[in-house]
Every structure is written in C-alpha cells, then in structure tokens.
Design brief:
The protein is α+β, with helices and mostly antiparallel strands and 444 residues long. It has 23 helices and 11 strands. The strands form 3 sheets. It has a 7-stranded mixed β-sheet. The chain has a two-stranded antiparallel ribbon with strand order 6-7. Strands 10-11 form a two-stranded antiparallel ribbon. Helix 16 packs antiparallel against helix 17 and helix 19 packs antiparallel against helix 20. The longest helix has 20 residues. The chain is globular and about 90 Å long. The protein starts with 6 loop residues before the first helix and ends with a helix.
C-alpha cells in the first residue's frame, strides 16, 4: 500500500532515516489516508531522542519534551515529532506518571488507544499494522489496542474518543470495547471540562450527531451530560410531535449543517421540556415556557464545560428564540431581527426549519410556508438596509443632547422609542424627521 504524504513530512522522515534513525507517519493521518480522507495534521514517530531530533532540524519548539515530543517547523507548517515511548503507570485516569523512551516501534504503537489509530507508515517499509487496524477499518469497528479495560483505565478520555470516532467514521464500537466503557464510565469524572467539551463538540459536528444516542446507551451522558438523560422517554402527546423529546432532538440535530453553534442550539433547544411538561384533561401535553428554561440549562451546561463567552452568548440567545413565531409580515420580521440580531437571524431560520422537519406532519406545510415568507422579508430588509438596531438609527445620543436632552435614562428611553417607530415604518429613519419628533416631544 502506498500513501501519498506531504512533501514536508517526507522531508522530515527522510532526514531522520539518513541519520540512522527510524521514522514513520503515525496515527490519525495514516488512518485518514487509507480512508481517502484529508488528514487534519501529520504526526511523526521516531527512534531518535528529543535532543537528537533538535540537532537535525533548524527550527524546533519543545512542545512536550518530557513526553518526547518536539515540534519541527518547516516554513509556516508545524509537525509533531515524538520519540518511541512506553508509558508508565497512570494515576489520574489521564496522564502517565513517567514515560520511558524505547527504540521499538511496536512498543510505541502498543500504548495507543484504538487499532485504527495504531498504524504507522513510511515509503520504505510501507504500512506497519501490528494490532489489526486494517482489518478493523475493513470491518468498520472501533476496537481498543490490547485489553480495553487497561486502555480506558490508563486514560478515561479514550471513552469519549471511542464514541467520537464512532460518530466521525460511522463505525460501531466492538463489543468488548463497549463493555469496558460501561464498566469504567464513572472515571470520566476525572477528566477536565475542557477535554470533555472538545470531544462532545467533535461528536456533535460530525456527519453523525445521532451517535449521541450511543453515548447515552453506554452511560456516558449520565456522567458528562445528565441533562440529556432527562429528555429520554419524555413523551410529547401533541399533534405537532411524533417522537419523545430526546428522539426529536436527534432528528433536529441531523437537520442542521455541521456548524458548532447550530448543533449546540439543537442539542439544548428542548432541554427545558421535561421540567415544563403539563398534561391537560384531554391528555394533551403542553410545554409552555420551555424555551426560557432550555436557555438556562444551556447556559449552565456550557459554563460547566468551559465554553467561551461568545459561543455561550450565541447559543443561549438562539435557544431562547428557537420557538419564536410570528405572522410573516415586514414589521414582524424587523421586530424579530431587532430581538434576535441580524447576525444570528439566518441561524434562527435554520433552527426553525430543523425543528419543524423533526416534528410530525401536522400543519407542516403551513409552518414551512411561514418560514419561506419570513425569509423573504428578512432578505428584503437586508437589501433595503432597513433599520432594526440603534446602530442603524439615523440619530445618535449626541444628536439628542444637541437638541437639549440630558444624558441618562430618559435619553436611552427616547432612542428606544425612536427605534420602535422606525421598525414600524422604515421611511421614518431620517435625521430631520427624527429630530423634529424629539423637538415636539420636548416642547410638551
């Protein structure tokens, strides 16, 4: 088997070989190349020690030298080059207490997580596959290298990585590996929030976000996202729905593109429903106010998982407005653009569409026609540069001060009043007209 490696990777491997060392591309880049996917990055493993690597390359960075990793810089590209190593004991379910360098490639491959990530390649030897990675690629399986309980006991994050790779590749998890996950899933509590966030987002933005169901079935969400488990089995006895809340959420996730914000919004959008569920005398379920509760849950979970503030802002706002409905006229759409924000409005439309498509057929045509009309008015408002925010208003606070208004609460209220009038009638957004209106108000 021949793998086409980037010229700079070949250059690094060749340089190491010419100086008497072994060197191979290793891990995900080999796996992805075999699957005809474009690798995100290229990692290299070698028998050379870190100080020997540093002597052979002009520009290097000590990124993880205690674990044998040196980053080699060639032009604008960076490549991690790591010495073959054997990991010592793991005491925190994440990091080895020590590492020992070795000159045996097989020893290095033995410490890796899954068989499909434990293959190495160079142009001389070609593929090195000691643990059956090719076989598992052919059979579409996620299987641990060696004894799965040992692998997961060493690093609990591998439990999440198993499901994430399963979602990215649409490969089921091999039975013994799945059993080990169920047994050791409580150790995920030892993993940092940032690491959990990274793996959860990778799963969600994969081509198969529905594999979050696998995470639930293996007991993973119970540890990292118990809010998901609360939705499972919560029925929706209403003409608008045909799935329980969790199943509806899975379908909604599949209905939006692989975008971090969109997928997170769909994950959280109905998490408030279990709390807000009521059933009337006819047996019909209602979920009034669930959007506000879902927003609070989204904020709580995202803070717990250490998401950045900007992502939290976007996701929580969209969760709050995910069920915002309106008669599709120009005024209503401008008002909605003001509430949701012009930047987030295309997300709002995508979310409403995904939510609708994951519901029952009841009134579906009307709902879709409503969204088409809203979108038309939104595009018109953009095209005509219609004012929907204070930033777009033809007057500023300074203009009102010049007319004799004092800075403070009253000034802010006047600007909001002007904006409200302009949202009702875009033609009113002219400085002269707005100033006349303010003068008249001040004279009374």
């Amino acid at each position: 088997m021949k793998i086409e490696m980037p010229r700079k990777v070949v250059l690094i491997i060749t340089n190491l070989q010419q100086h008497g060392y072994e060197a191979y591309a290793v891990g995900g880049c080999v796996r992805d190349s075999i699957l005809n996917r474009t690798p995100e990055d290229w990692d290299i493993t070698t028998s050379a020690k870190p100080e020997e690597i540093k002597q052979l390359f002009r520009r290097t960075v000590d990124t993880g030298i205690e674990h044998g990793t040196v980053t080699v810089l060639i032009g604008r590209d960076a490549f991690e080059v790591t010495t073959y190593r054997v990991d010592g004991k793991y005491e925190d379910s994440r990091h080895p207490t020590e590492v020992t360098f070795t000159n045996q490639l097989e020893e290095d491959l033995k410490r890796r997580d899954f068989t499909i990530n434990a293959m190495a390649y160079n142009d001389q030897v070609r593929l090195v596959d000691v643990f059956g990675g090719m076989k598992d690629l052919n059979y579409h399986l996620i299987r641990c290298v060696g004894e799965p309980r040992e692998r997961f006991s060493e690093d609990a994050l591998r439990i999440l990585r198993a499901v994430r790779f399963s979602a990215q590749l649409a490969f089921p998890i091999e039975l013994e590996t799945a059993d080990a996950i169920r047994e050791l899933v409580p150790t995920l509590a030892n993993i940092s929030a940032e690491r959990i966030q990274t793996e959860l987002v990778k799963l969600l933005v994969s081509d198969h976000p529905e594999y979050i169901k696998t995470a639930y079935e293996l007991g993973i969400t119970k540890v990292i996202l118990p809010e998901w488990d609360a939705m499972v089995g919560v029925g929706q006895n209403t003409p608008h729905h045909k799935y329980d809340v969790a199943e509806h959420t899975i379908h909604a996730l599949q209905n939006v593109k692989n975008d971090k914000v969109l997928r997170l919004v769909m994950l959280f959008h109905d998490m408030g429903k279990p709390v807000m569920k009521t059933t009337d005398e006819n047996g019909r379920d209602h979920f009034k106010g669930h959007a506000a509760v879902s927003e609070e849950i989204a904020r709580t979970v995202m803070k717990r998982l250490k998401f950045d503030n900007e992502t939290i802002r976007k996701v929580t706002k969209l969760v709050y407005y995910h069920d915002y409905r309106m008669e599709p006229n120009a005024q209503n759409v401008r008002k909605a653009m003001h509430l949701i924000g012009t930047e987030l409005f295309p997300y709002y439309l995508a979310i409403r569409l995904a939510d609708t498509m994951a519901q029952s057929g009841y009134q579906k045509r009307e709902k879709l026609e409503n969204l088409i009309e809203i979108r038309k008015h939104f595009i018109n408002a953009l095209r005509n540069r219609e004012c929907v925010s204070l930033k777009m208003l033809a007057v500023t606070g300074r203009d009102l001060i010049a007319l004799g208004m004092e800075p403070g609460k009253q000034l802010g209220e006047m600007l909001d009043e002007l904006l409200e009038k302009v949202i009702l009638d875009p033609k009113f957004n002219k400085k002269e007209q707005l100033c006349s209106y303010v003068k008249e108000k001040l004279s009374h």
